[in-house]
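Notebook entry, structure prediction.
Reason for the run: the old model in the group folder had no record of what sequence produced it. Starting over properly, with the input documented here first.
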Amino acid sequence: MEAHAQQINDYLTQQIADGFLEGELRAHLLANGWTPADVDAAFKRYHASLARAMPVPQPPAAPSQPAFAAAPGHGLQREPKKRGLTYIVIGAAAVVLIAAGIFAYLALSPDKLDKLAEPALDRHTQNTNRELDANNIATAIAQYVTDHQGALPLATATSPAAKTLNLCGADCDDGDRVGVTLAYYANTPTAVTFRGYITDLKVPDTKTVYIVDSADCAPDRHTIGQSTAGGQTVNAAVLFATDSGSGPEQHCISPY
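New structure, fully documented this time:
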């Protein structure tokens, strides 16, 4: 592996372990001169290393049959009750047959093992697309502010057929706007809306994005920070949520 490839691999591994989102890292690498091809290749190598590190699940072990100790004493021993012994043997045999059936089902259908991992893989893909969309929205806000002498966008307009969200001023029909191509929110771009600043503002689910003007993100990068209204610094916060597997986990991204 070339030195620059190892360098970016080590960087991704460390930063993701420290809690940074993939979308944030992708935007940071591109902003610092890495090409999209280098960044895409680095993430592919990172995901491939995760797949190799994932342990293969082992089938359940068949329980051993219970052993019966001889009764203590001398001379003739009383014969155990045959009916109780028969029930125990039948029960143990049933457990062995059930375990063997499960093992055979998985062994003869390797695709079943793959299906066990599908929900987690789908959730990871959707979360990656959510992060990518939120970062692209934050980038578009920064572009709009640059193009409009420090003014923040005021509204959104959507083009579901083109899977595009437009950030614009008071009138989105005059052509003065910045477009964002969406991935996860492509089919529901109307879920991206402007909200005024409210302390402890939270998105209700993983399908909603709030653009909060005149606000920044808290240091934990999960919640809204302080209001910047009336200050000299133009800022905005993008609130969205990923699926943690047990419910929505909110994140906050600022264009600046």
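Summary: The chain has five helices and nine strands.
The old model has been moved to the deprecated folder.
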